[in-house]
Design a protein that fits this description.
Blueprint: H1 10-28, E1 34-36, H2 43-47, H3 78-88, E2 95-97, H4 102-115, E3 132-137, H5 141-150, E4 153-160, E5 163-164, H6 166-175, E6 179-184, H7 198-205, H8 207-210, E7 216-220, H9 238-245, E8 251-256, E9 268-271, H10 274-284, H11 293-302, H12 308-335, E10 341-343, E11 352-356, H13 361-370, E12 373-375, E13 392-395, H14 402-425
Parallel strand pairs: 1-12, 3-4, 3-6, 6-7, 7-8
Antiparallel strand pairs: 2-9, 4-5, 8-9, 10-11, 11-13
């Protein structure tokens, strides 16, 4: 535990800084090389799906009699779309099964909205020269990259313990009709681990009634089944909420098996209203003759038994939970009785969001790298890489072993403390 820095004299701070610097130099001598930058499944997690290899056994006929080795089928296989419908919580008729990446589907959907429109002639976002997108922060850097790539201005919106600050979201939409989109990671959000409250989901479903024309919520439900325990909070069904509000066209839902089976060889899903699907498929038909149906069929058969998806995710949780518990133990031991850091005790997903004192995230990341621990760059969880407080750091503990996570967190907590003491000495 670290004492209250405000209660220490300059001499005491200098002595503490000297001791921490010596500890840091000792850690550097260990020659660690650990990477906590991205939320990827570990090798042990990927091994859970090795039965996918050879699963088809030469039988390439889908349930509908389609030879999956051939061209066609823009919607994807029916039995695979049923898996997507389970993940998204919506009718299979309104689910499209695509390739391996939901990020690709999100980019394609936003590109179609921007260049072609999702509501017929005249609905393309680019016709509004000031097209903007609301981005809850801290948030997912790859969402921000899509907006930046398309030239869509990003407006940060604070995250709360219940999801995006809906007062701020609604006010922005009421005042600015050029806001065309809102990004959401609704269950175990990236990186805070927040699960949107029922009230937040209801209010998001009503946004189509107050936003300007052609507004869409990009509902990236990447971690819908990625709970670490059976008591983790559930997420309200946004599709049902939109039907009640009469705003089915305002939300596009996304999910994938990327962190369920093979991260680089999964299946991505898009769920949307009939009108949205009509315009999306019209554009996709110029891009592709159809997705990888062989991979879709083996995924459908891998999860063909009732309850197989839930049982599979319990195996993932058994591997992930000790890693997250290790991170949380170090954070509690180091900062549980002081104000050097803030974090959420997450119950699912792939990340823990940590806030240093203002002005210390970049320095903490720099110090950690010097001791052999690579972290996501400070600022990555904000649009344009600019965290105005320079405080947020995303911790991704899934890939290293439990013992390696333990080593990495020894470095991390020391670096946070050392940076904090050095800052205190300057004031």
């Amino acid at each position: 535990m670290t004492p209250d820095l405000a209660s220490l004299s300059q001499d005491q701070l200098k002595a503490l800084e000297s001791d921490l610097s010596n500890q840091y130099d000792t850690l550097k001598q260990e020659g660690l090389s650990l990477d906590l930058t991205r939320g990827k499944p570990s090798t042990e997690q990927l091994d859970l799906s090795n039965a996918l290899d050879g699963l088809l056994g030469g039988d390439y006929q889908s349930r509908d009699g389609v030879d999956v080795r051939n061209y066609g089928g823009l919607d994807g296989l029916t039995e695979c779309r049923e898996l997507g419908a389970e993940l998204l919580g919506m009718p299979v008729e309104q689910v499209l099964a695509g390739g391996s990446s939901s990020l690709t589907l999100m980019h394609q959907a936003m590109s179609i909205a921007y260049h072609d429109g999702l509501s017929g002639p005249g609905s393309a976002w680019h016709l509004d020269k000031n097209a903007k997108c609301l981005c809850p922060v801290p948030g997912y850097d790859r969402h921000f990259a899509i907006c930046e790539h398309l030239g869509i201005e990003m407006i940060p919106v604070p995250m709360t313990d219940a999801g995006p600050d809906m007062d701020a979201v609604e006010k922005a939409l009421e005042q600015d009709p050029s806001i065309k989109a809102l990004w959401c990671v609704p269950r175990f959000s990236n990186p805070t681990g927040i699960v949107y409250s029922d009230e937040t989901v209801r209010r998001i479903a009503h946004l189509g009634r107050i936003a300007g024309e052609h507004f869409r919520v990009f509902w990236d439900n990447a971690y819908s089944v990625h709970a670490l325990n059976d008591q983790a909070p559930a997420l309200a069904n946004v599709f049902d909420a939109c039907r009640e509000a009469g705003t089915e066209d305002s939300v596009l839902q996304f999910a994938s098996t990327s962190k369920i089976t093979f991260a680089g060889s999964g299946v991505a899903f898009l769920g949307a209203s009939d009108k949205n699907l009509q315009h999306i498929k019209a554009s996709l038909s110029a891009l592709t003759i159809g997705p990888d149906k062989v991979n879709q069929l083996r995924h459908a058969r891998f999860f063909a038994q009732d309850g197989s998806l839930k049982a599979h995710m319990k195996q993932h949780a058994a591997l992930l939970k000790p890693r997250f518990d290790t991170v949380l133990k170090h954070l509690n031991d180091a900062f549980g009785d002081n104000d050097l850091g803030q974090w959420n005790a997450v119950e699912g997903g792939y990340f823990i969001s940590f806030n240093t004192r203002p002005g210390l995230a970049k320095e903490t990341v720099r110090l950690a790298l010097g001791a052999g621990v690579k972290l996501t760059p400070a600022g990555a969880t904000y649009p344009y890489g600019k965290d105005p407080e320079d405080a947020n750091i995303r911790i991704a503990p899934s890939v290293p072993s439990v013992s390696e996570v333990d080593d990495a967190m020894r470095v991390f907590t020391l670096c946070v403390t050392l940076a904090s003491v050095r800052q205190a000495l300057q004031h």
